[in-house]
Amino acid sequence: MAHGDQLPIACVNAWDAVEWPEGAPDSWEYHPESRQHGCRTPSRETERKSQLDGTNRPGRPYAVLMIAPTSFFSDYGCSVRILEEIRALRRMGHGVTVCTYRSGQDVPGLSIRRTPGIPFRAHHEVGSSPHKIAFDLLLFWTVLVAALRRRPDVIHAHMHEGALIGLVVGRLLRIPMVFDFQGSLTGEMVDHHFLHPDSPFYRPLRWLETVIDHKSRIILTSSHNARDLLVTQFGCLSERVQTVPDGVDAQAFYPPSDSEQESLARRRASLLIPPGRKIVVYLGLLAGYQGTDALLEAAARLLAVRDDVHFLIMGFPSVEDYRQKARQLGISAHTTFTGKIPYEQARNYLALGDVAVAPKLSATEGSGKILNYMAMGLPTVAFEAPVSREYLGSEGIYAACGDAASLAEALLFGLQDQNVAGRGQVLRRMAIDAHTWDHAAETIVGAYARVCP
User: Fold this and answer.
1) What DSSP character marks residue 337?
2) Does 409 have pLDDT greater than 90?
3) CA separation (Å) from 429 to 85, 179, 248, 296?
4) Are 66 and 165 in contact (CB under 8 A)?
5) pTM of the model
6) CA angle at 248 for the pair 246 and 254, rounded to the nearest 5°
7) Distance CA 329, CA 303 (A)
């Protein structure tokens, strides 16, 4: 549709019969000129209230249609970023409706639109899958219907699948889009062993990824490393790429106090962790590209020289596969696999740790779990990678990427570090100073303002 074309009559009717997402401002005035860009203008009363109470920076509230091509909400990094962005945007007075797959947990107070179910695949685990094609076709329809019924000011699309849907719907209805980049599409497929660089499908998918990147007016990245990737490898203009680092709620994730020791002891006992053992904690997805195999191999090496250590490994999927690998390595008596941990309970389990580990191998994705560790004041061991360095700086404990022996040495150093308390305090202060979700939301709203007059 050319820029000067008239909107389809269904779109015009949808504008006039619009229903606002939960949490959206009540006072709006309709201005015909703003229909051209898919934006509305707040009433003078709403605008004056924003100026008085200091909310809704920079300028006015937005009605946001967020596209989440995942099983939202699930207890892992991608969903956590989406959830915390929504919460922070709502605190600033913006209305958000999220369109997502059929499966996933509902979150009280959020406006969520789910795709219809499909008979041959009711549930989708994380990661690349041919079934995602069907899910994304259904998601496109869900987004289109939601945009017609509740005309947003801006589409906020997560991941390349969401951005492709957002570009098409935005083109049809003249709604601007912001792309929340969470890693390379083809890079993730290769990491998940769903695609090989020598595959005949690799080049077409790489081309599609590049087109999506170039067609997106503003791209938000979770790290400076991802920003550099888009500029250097995909040729994106640097002024169109903004870094919005993952954040952490430092009031939800905080170090344990002396008064909690009894409850921590009970939780430790419930997990059958013997007293007297130092605990290494991991919270995240269990997969090869997440470094889970390397973590277990490092655990075997470490336990060969120090038997007073226990590995508390929290996450999913493939729990039974990794339990079996721990048995094969002879370390099952020193490992506990909890399976999925609800996000709201994550802090209480991380509080058991003496050292945290983030062995992620992917070079293009973020690693938000590191910020949770930092807010907990946990000394953190990670593979040497740009994202890890970006978050942890000189306070991180690093291992050579993918090297289990190096990871074991780094974990041993962390457990023996004489400055554990001081390192933890510095890490928590770094998280509080530079990685709050409210700060991230202000940058996101600034991106909305750039694309939506």
Assistant:
1) E
2) yes
3) 21, 30, 12, 30
4) no
5) 0.80
6) 155
7) 11
